[in-house]
C-alpha cells in the first residue's frame, strides 16, 4: 500500500532529526519552503509538522516556526520520590540550584488546607530555580511545616533539603501523593525559567509525608516541557 505523502515527509524529517541533521534548537524551513522542496501542498506539510510535534520532535512556536527539540530528555520517575540533587547527579551533567526565595511565614488559607495546619502554625516557603547545562528548566516552590523543619538556610536549600531532613534531623521521608497537570506559564515562570517561547509548563504537585504519615511538605515543581520524560512502571493486577 502506498504511504501517504505526509507520512513519508514525517518519516524523512524525523530520521534526519534522530541522525543529528537538524540539531536541537534549529528552526526547520518554513511550510512554504518545505512544500516547494517536497513538491506538495502546504496542507500536506502542515500534517507532517503536526505529527512531528505530537511525537516530540519539534515545537511549533508562534512567530518562530518549527523548532527542533532535544531528543535526549531527562527521565523523571513518576512513582519515585527523589531530590533534584539525586536526579541531577545521575545525569552526569553540570547542574546548579539558585535560591530565589527563603522565608519563614504564617500560612494563608490555601497552605493551611494543603498542609493540614492552622493559622497559628508557621511554614518555610522556598523557591528554587534548577539549572542543567546552564538552562533554567525547573522552578521548585516548596512549603515545609516548620514543626518538622525548625531551621533552614540558603546553603541547605542550595544543596539538598531532603538530605538535611534525613541525615541531620533524623526524619524518614516515606511517600508522596502526586498530581501532574499542564498549565500556561505564569509571569513568574516566564521571568525565572528559560522557556524560549514554550507556551506551557508541566507542573508536578506533591504532598510529601513522613513514615508516621505526618504531612511534611507541599510542593509545586514547574518544568519546561521539552526537557523531561515522565516515566513509570505499571503492572496489571489480576
Automatic annotation (TrEMBL):
Q: Which Gene3D superfamilies has this protein been placed in?
A: Chorismate lyase-like (3.40.1410.10), Winged helix-like DNA-binding domain superfamily/Winged helix DNA-binding domain (1.10.10.10)
Q: Name one Pfam family in it.
A: UTRA
Does Transcription appear among the keywords? yes
Q: Which domain of life is it from?
A: Bacteria
Task: Give all residue intervals belonging to the HTH gntR-type domain.
Answer: 3-71
PROSITE patterns annotated for this entry?
HTH_GNTR
Supply the alphabetized keyword list. Answer: DNA-binding, Transcription, Transcription regulation
Q: Which PANTHER family match?
A: HTH-TYPE TRANSCRIPTIONAL REGULATOR TRER, MANNOSYL-D-GLYCERATE TRANSPORT/METABOLISM SYSTEM REPRESSOR MNGR-RELATED
Under which name does UniProt file this protein?
Answer: Trehalose operon repressor
Recorded source organism is Fictibacillus terranigra
